[in-house]
Amino acid sequence: MYQSKINxxxxxxxxxxxxxxxxxxxxxxxxxxxxxxxxxxxxxxxVEAYYLFRVRGLRxxxxxxxxxxxxxxITVRHYPHWDLRRCYKNAVLRQHIASREIKKTLGYDWNIxxxxxxxxxxxxxxxxxxxxxxxxxxxxxxxxxxxxxxQTNRVFPIFAFTRAEVLKYLQRxxxxxxxxxxxxxQGGVDFHPATLAFLKNQYxxxxxxxxxxxxxxxxxxxxxxx
Length: 226
What we know:
By secondary structure, the protein is α/β, with parallel strands linked by helices. The chain has helices at 2-17, 31-43, 59-72, 84-89, 99-105, 110-121, 136-145, 163-172, 193-202, 204-213, 218-225; strands spanning 22-26, 46-53, 76-80, 126-127, 148-149, 154-155. Helix content is 51%, strand content 11%.
């Protein structure tokens, strides 16, 4: 079963490799994006990557990106997370910010971020580490496209993998399992109470940066204890 999943991922990437010699990877710093990055590096002449930040310059993310540079020779590009517009507009865990400032600093949505990355990195296709058992919404999307979306130029090579199979892949490839930031499946650095607790204990400097940007974030920790 595991080998058949590898074969599916390989064949999926080979289809895209017949179209273009280079590819971009959406890098979250989690296990799925590491597996996707490694698979892409085996079949494409050039691989680029990007990371979406909610708080710029966190040490925990820099360490992961440094590993990517050392292992695959890829410099991860950083862009503001498209969710920041919502956070700033609705004052999520922070004070209100003027609308003109939002437009000036966060003129992004998912498609715009992708287009900017494509232009900067000179790639057409982007690979994502989505799996169909991540969520119901992803399961529906991946069921429709079977791992390749030709309309949006997105590919999902590990869409059929289970969590255990991703971990098995990393182990066999001698890739250390990245930190989960206190959660079973890493969702990047966000405002989840477990993630905040992880940063507070393991990366206090990053925790301080996050709280400076989102001063009300500690409320999430209080809620989690009640």
